[in-house]
Design goal:
alpha/beta, Aspartate Aminotransferase, domain 2, Aspartate Aminotransferase, domain 1, 2 domains, 7-stranded mixed sheet, 3-stranded antiparallel sheet, 13 helices, 13% strand, binds pyridoxal-5'-phosphate
């Protein structure tokens, strides 16, 4: 059996080696390492794929989030609502810009931002909501967009884990992750669903003025060379990374299907296990399974941290990697200590942190590996709960 990895980028590379190698070679031959034509080509191809009117490639997903908040003109002290159960980048850029992160709890089943919690967290100083489409499934965008409209708030989608996920509104309209709010942000970090061979990211927007502002901010705040109209940053997608992404984009749908097939295998294997809860599905969103994340529970379906940790160690012995995304919610992180928050304030996120376990998930998992992983997990649970 092939060695099991959380993410297998080597096998994926070998499947499309020719396309990748020739793309990279062309960049090296042209020596247009920055702002080469491949960046614009990829931008247009991704616009066509996602339906976003404007895509602005940048250096990474964290930059995309920061630039989004800068482009909206938020001021020091403005409040930005974001889930407490996510990767740190979402709140980090809020804090870096001197804005006030207001964290909210998530739903136990989908692990996405709780809409009731968003509603409760809104104050006169709230300016924006940043939903995270966690693990590859869109947050409840219908309700979030409705709240934002009613309260006059911006929505910046953190779609770093959810490129290609499709959301269906109740009127039948469909939209891809990142194209529903004022701005969407994504990451091309190598292990993301559309990953390059280094760092990369992009902003999505359907608004012409915002697009122009975003381009300017990402380029030192200038529109005309050496005329700096606003404070900006330097954030670019390297041409070599754009060439890699342009080679991979035509395969994204088949990559997503491969993830979904692996997820279905896991779902079927675990759905009747009494110590395992499979990921909850929001039927309005497709799930592109950036992560496949189990909750390990007691028979009464409350978190079983001890069993989760023991199972992770058991799997390590069987050469099966598994990861805890995320072990500590934002409001309990040292750097984000805040007198407004204490342990117990966001009970769902805290419970999730105690019981989540993400399994190997990538585009090259084969049946032999899936069979071994699922069998080992079931055997492990049986042994550890004897
Ligand atoms: C990966 C990720 C980011 C940051 O992307 P980088 O490209 O690593 O900067 C932000 N938010 C979420 C939810 C992510 O998963």
């Amino acid at each position: 059996m092939k060695k099991i990895q959380m993410v297998d980028l080597q096998t994926q590379y070998l499947q499309i080696k020719q396309e990748i190698d020739s793309g990279i070679e062309q960049v090296i031959r042209s020596a247009a390492f920055v702002k080469g034509e491949q960046v614009t080509n990829f931008q247009h191809h991704l616009e066509a794929y996602t339906g976003a009117k404007h895509i602005i490639p940048v250096g990474n997903g964290t930059d995309a989030l920061q630039i989004a908040l800068m482009a909206l003109g938020l001021q020091r002290g403005d409040e930005v609502i974001t889930p407490t159960f996510t990767f740190i980048a979402t709140a980090e850029v809020v804090a870096l810009l001197g804005l006030t992160p207001v964290v909210v709890d998530v739903d136990w089943d989908t692990m996405n931002m709780s809409v009731e919690a968003v509603e409760r967290a809104i104050t006169p100083r709230t300016k924006a909501i940043v939903p995270v489409h966690l693990f590859g499934q869109c947050a409840n965008m219908e309700a979030i967009m409705a709240i934002a409209k009613r309260k006059g708030l911006y929505v910046v989608e953190d779609a770093c884990q959810a490129i290609g996920s499709v959301y269906t509104f109740s009127d039948g309209k469909k939209a891809q992750a990142g194209t529903m709010g004022e701005i969407g942000c994504t990451s091309f970090f190598p292990s993301k669903n559309l990953g390059c061979y280094g760092d990369g990211g992009a902003l999505f927007t359907n608004d012409d003025d915002l697009a122009a502002k975003i381009r300017s901010i990402a380029n030192h705040g200038m529109e005309i060379r050496y005329h700096h109209d606003r404070v900006g940053v330097n954030s670019r997608l390297d041409t070599i990374q754009a060439a890699v992404l342009d080679a991979k984009l035509p395969h994204l749908d088949e990559y997503t299907s491969a993830r979904q097939m692996a997820a279905k295998y896991y779902d079927n294997a675990f759905k009747d296990e009494k110590h395992i809860l499979i990921p909850g599905h929001d039927t309005r969103s497709t799930h592109v399974y950036h992560q496949y994340t189990l909750r390990i529970v007691k028979e009464d379906k409350t978190p079983d941290k001890e069993l989760r940790d023991a199972l992770k160690a058991y799997l390590t012995d069987k050469q099966i990697p598994a990861m805890i995304y995320y072990p500590i919610p934002l409001h309990l992180q040292k750097a984000y200590q805040d007198s407004r928050y204490k342990k117990g304030d966001f009970p769902v996120a805290e419970r999730l942190a105690d019981c989540v376990l993400s399994l190997p998930m990538h585009t090259c998992l084969d049946e032999e590996q899936l069979e071994y992983i699922t069998r080992s997990i079931k055997e492990g649970i049986r042994e550890l709960t004897k």
